[in-house]
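Hey,
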Amino acid sequence: MEKIKIAIVGIGNCASSLVQGIEYYKTKNSTDAIGLMHYELGGYKPYDIKVVAAFDIDKRKVGKDVAEAIFQPPNCTTTLCADMPKAGTIVRMGRVLDGVADHMKTYHEKYAFLLSDEKEAGKQAVVRELKTSGAEILLNYLPVGSDQAATFYAECALEAGVALINNMPVFIASNPNWASRFDTAGLPIIGDDIKSQLGATIVHRVLTNLFKNRGVKLERTYQLNTGGNTDFLNMLDRTRLISKRTSKTEAIQSQTENRLDDENIHIGPSDWVAWQKDNKVCFLRMEGKLFGDVPMNLELRLSVEDSPNSGGIVIDAVRCCKLALDRGKGGILYSPSAYFMKHPPKQFTDDEAYNLTEDFIQGKRED
């Protein structure tokens, strides 16, 4: 198969896990490839993905080969491939806008960003890089709260004629105006806000559905998360969390039989614990009533390495997006968005979204 050419905005921990994962699965076959939902998807293997363009704003990453940049601080995720071959793609200076929270400038450099001295890229420079690289799909890995930067790169994708996978919670695919523009341009879009493979949101959703299907009335719930990567450090600025809280909360509310009152549901990042690094710990509590109005509660602690937890999901999202390009399908990919993302344009149960996505992959539905 030909390579799927992708561009990445934000060479952080998630991008590091993705790029390493693409290399890691080159040595695996379908029988020993642990951690993938699909080893082959539409004829494409995980290693059929190639990074042909990349953008960041940290001086430790800009100007370096992608294979080197992914290991630069403040990245701190698990190393999957210590001996990464050169990618042949240099990380270019991007556009800052609101891509860096002000408070992160006050932390030690091993935790925070060091802004590059290079001149920021304008729109035409980014568009030119996307076009000349041959990129087909742009992956947005910007930090939470980067509303202006996210819309800047969405504009660049439209002008360059590339598809978009929006992995962060700025609502683009789920915004009718943006969705209409990608549809008009004939460009696929998947979004918004990536779900992890087995993370807090997917576990919380499945349990919420379990309560509903077993006749248990869910009355109150919370999901508290701590971590030590730059994502959690960035989110210490609570003003950047509006869309993130909305995304995570709606992911759960959409699965309830009756929406919970605002005071009875609390979901979102709670604190940054430096020594946790890329490990994320979720504390989840659900309170409800069983047969005869008898009360019950469930408490769960989930510990996962945060960034690899999204890698396999993004690999599938990229391949679904490529299938849409191969088929000449533009606009929202509803089924993959519902299965891979927390805040898709249309919510389904995860079982429904899985079946719809399988039908999309097999060409049984155009989406």
